[in-house]
Amino acid sequence: MTQQEHRITGATKAGVGHDSAGLRERILVAAIDLLAREGAEALTTRAVAAIAGIQAPTLYRLFSNKSGLMDAVAEHGFLTYLQTKQVRVSGRDPVENLRAGWDLHIDFGLSNPALFALMSGTLRSGVPSPAAAAGVQHLKRQINALALAGRLRISEQRAVDLISAAGRGMVLTLLEMPEDRRDPELSDIAREAVISAIVTELPTAKASGLSEVSITLRALLPEAQLLTPGERVLLMEWLDRFAISPERRERMT
After folding, report:
1. Other C-beta atoms within 10 Å of 247: how many?
2. What DSSP state is assigned to residue 180?
3. Residues 6 or more apart whose Cβ sits within 8 Å of residue 96
4. Are 150 and 204 in contact (CB under 8 A)?
5. What's the pTM?
6. Would you kindly state where each structural domain of the chain is located, as residue ranges?
7. Is the dihedral of CA 243, 245, 246, 252 positive or negative?
8. What is the topology classification, in CATH, of domain 3-85?
9. Which residues contact 80 (CB under 8 A, 6 or more apart)?
């Protein structure tokens, strides 16, 4: 578990006693309920404090400011959602993990539009929440697992950017549709199109493409302990160049 995930799963409560932890939970539940019922404009520290039955200074002592409260609301809401889904994807095929992660992302966005907007930065001048940042780190690990398995046809960062953009766009597109007119297969079609764009049919050990082999080797590079830091950086730069597909290389020249 990363430092960021430790923080999301409880390290934010460091220095807070048991009574304060219970109070913190009560405030977050009140804020999430207010956000779901009345939208982002109603999510003020004064309104949340009133619903939770506390004074504003108590809220500020626990969350510092409104921005801290909003971050905590996003984290708490997303973790609560994950717990209801009982997510267990480790140990499966990395492509199936990616599919499960996509479906989870779409389902969360459609089930919790206000929380999704809060996490993605739509409500905060484009600044994603720490919960969203942790989600990106999880996606990076999924993509790295694909690279290590020899199944990635584009660079890891490009794959992360593509999936992030496509997933967020799909949620926003579906949310703009009247609920009774949403096409349930639209997300599946987009998911498979994205997977087809980034995943090879066979492990690259059986493939001849230089770009795919370079992507796999780059993923393994942290294990190259015989290299000096400078050599590792230089080799990483070379592999990044080799990882560019022939078609993209032609467009760049």
Report:
1. 8
2. G
3. 89
4. yes
5. 0.69
6. 3-85, 94-252
7. negative
8. Arc Repressor Mutant, subunit A (1.10.10)
9. 32
Tell the burial category of 253 from Cβ atoms under 10 Å away from its Cβ (0-12, 13-18, 19+): exposed
Q: Which residues of 112-128 are buried (b: 16+ CB within 10 A; e: fewer)?
A: bbbbbbbbbebbbeeeb
| Tokens, residue 219 | 């993923």
Q: Which two tokens stand for residue 33?
A: 């309920």
Signed CA dihedral, 7, 11, 13, 16: sign only: negative
Structure tokens at 21: 């932890």
Residue written as tokens 């720490």? 130
CA distances from 252 to 52, 152, 241 (A): 57, 21, 12
Comparing C-alpha atoms, which of 137, 128, 194, 118 is closest to residue 163?
Answer: 194
Q: Which long-range contacts (CB under 8 A, 24 or more apart) does 164-173 make?
A: 164/136, 164/139, 166/190, 166/194, 167/102, 167/105, 167/106, 168/109, 168/120, 170/106, 171/105, 171/106, 171/109, 171/110, 171/116, 172/109
pLDDT along the chain (253 residues), means of 10: 41 46 90 89 90 91 90 87 66 86 92 87 69 87 89 90 94 92 92 93 56 68 69 71 62 56
